[in-house]
Amino acid sequence: MKEQSGVSRRDFMKGAVGAGAAFGAFTILGATAKGQGKAFKVGLIGCGGRGSGALSQHVEAAKILNGELKLGIEIQVVACADFFKDRAEGTGKRHGVPADKCFGGADNYKKLLEVPMDTVLMAQAPAFRPPHFEAAIKAGRNVFMEKPSGVDAPGIRKIMEAGKLAQEKGLMVVAGTQRRHEQGYNRQYQLIKEGAVGKVLAGRVAWNMGKIFHNNPMNPTKPDDLVRGGNWQLWIEMSGDHICEQHVHNIDIANWFIGRHPVSAAAFGGRAQRKAGNMYDFFSGDVDYGDGVHVHSMCRQVGGCWNWVGESFVYEKKAPGDFKAQEPLRYSEIPQKGGGHQQEHVNMLYYLVKGKQLNEAQSVAESTAVAIMVRDSAYTGKMMTWEEMFGNPKKNPEIYNKACKPSWQDFETGNIVYPKDGDAPVPGTA
Description:
Elements: H1 9-13, E1 39-45, H2 49-69, E2 74-81, H3 85-94, E3 102-103, H4 108-112, E4 119-122, H5 129-138, E5 142-145, H6 153-169, E6 173-175, H7 183-193, E7 200-209, H8 223-227, H9 236-239, H10 242-245, H11 248-258, E8 264-270, E9 282-288, E10 294-301, E11 308-315, H12 339-354, H13 361-380, E12 384-385, H14 386-391, H15 397-400, H16 408-413
Parallel strand pairs: 1-2, 1-4, 2-3, 4-5, 5-6, 7-10
Antiparallel strand pairs: 7-11, 8-9, 8-12, 9-10
């Protein structure tokens, strides 16, 4: 893949797509035009910059498909929800949503799901993703959810279980791991899938960039201090650290191209410049996929350093210059416009209208899980295994059940113990 350097936050937000998909005929639940699925009622949970952007891209996706393929899709935004009600009302006003359908508070998602709709877009802080996703699937909604899919092992397992339920119900699940929706990545995957380059033997994946977000200690004393945009990214409990919130994109490509999740991770990391929050500034990890395949995972948010964001792999053989794919490239029949963040919504709506299923819950859960493995290995100084964290609950119960606190439940009950600026994990002591 093409290596990128000097990638800014804005470049990142323009990034690329995707995740592992399952295909097949299914029924679009709740569609106004039953069997055709051309009219969709949509709700948004999380009305910050990313959520509002996702909603605008969802609306734009319908315009793209209508203009290119004459599909006649109608999008009606019927509800908005956010921890902060005024922010929900602001986004709702821009999309014609009445104030009484704009909800706030920690239980905003429960209120939103009482409104009849077909699809829920969710982009609140990652700590809230597992309960939001589970509730949406139980309510029979199609889902677009941003990455990462959680911040700890129990949350990821909740995503996996809800993803299985979505499959049983025939619901659509699209994730914000947008690289999988970009045709450049899909062309490379086609080479692997059809054996043109053989298997991946080794690789390196990275999100190394400059400093990001503010660095002013805040000493949180109320929920707003942890949940508000620009703040939640600073806290392990809310974002999962930047390895989950950002580097998950690159890890996702390693999982996809290798074709499985790893068996273990051994890593280190630390703080160099941060004063605010409790996150690390950098991580470096050896990710073992078994069968002798290792990938170096590295990410950093430190100014004045060498930057590289990308993925690079060693294959069994070189791709032939005259390679011609035997199968159509995934999504090749769909208009390609606007980059990865836009394309994931175009693909989602196209599949809904065509009655095909796309379920990325497991793939985004596994990619987030790997990020958590590397992160917790760096935090503790110990090797983390998939079996201990996501496989066998009896092998190491302490690791299997370890959850970030405060949790999403604590915000709903109000029983919050606040983290402290600079109180970062120390390897060898936990």
